[in-house]
Amino acid sequence: xxxxxxxxxxxxxxxxxxxxxxxxxxxxxxxxxxxxxxxxxxxxxxxxxxxxxxxxxxxxxxxxxxxxxxxxxxxxxxxxxxxxxxxxxxxxxxxxxxxxxxxxxxxxxxxxxxxxxxxxxxxxxxxxxxxxxxxxxxxxxxxxxxxxxxxxxxxxxxxxxxxxxxxxxxxxxxxxxxxxxxxxxxxxxxxxxxxxxxxxxxxxxxxxxxxxxxxxxxxxxxxxxxxxxxxxxxxxxxxxxxxxxxxxxxxxxxxx
Length: 256
Hints:
This protein is α/β, with parallel strands linked by helices. It contains eight helices and seven strands, in the order βαβαβαβαβαβαααβ. Helix content is 43%, strand content 14%. Helix 1 links the parallel strand 1 and strand 2 (39-44). Helix 1 (25-35) packs parallel to helix 2 (47-58), helix 1 (25-35) packs across helix 8 and helix 3 (74-88) packs parallel to helix 4 (111-133).
């Protein structure tokens, strides 16, 4: 059946799991997906904050359930998928958004600090993708969250974070090779630069102006709707001929 160009961005009746849905980008992703017709499974460790995201989705006329989960625990990832199947009967898409960041000099970073970042940002993405792929059918889609720092360091002491985000790029490519042709599951990643968010609100304004905005070709931080639009593109049928790529969304940061 022929689909109009705009219809390719719709996700009516599809069930999408979003991890890290209790704050930041995850809240915006949930609202954007509800606006294009998706029903949501919202997962995060802070279940009390998930209730607010759930309300925002329901206010847009879509269904949503909240599931407390730590993606570093494979059993929790299986639990999220089981709840999705129990409530909706299917999983059509996954947004691997849960993540943490640290800035610790490499000679001071403890094994536990390093492992905690890898456990959530990399291992958690893998466990969630693995659990979802077991139940997904052809036409499904996974979007992992990497970072521009996965391509190029920023001069900050972020060995764990940078390593995890670079690894997500490799993970995305490999899962696409394994699953797209055989199972019909597309796997891509977004690599955001610096967006207006809770994280950047906490950053020193002079640092942001001098080291972020000045090095970004468009001369500003990204707007939430801009990353929401990119996510919808990669998750929906609008990108049906794309798999295995990592899309930088950085205002020209990497090009400068």
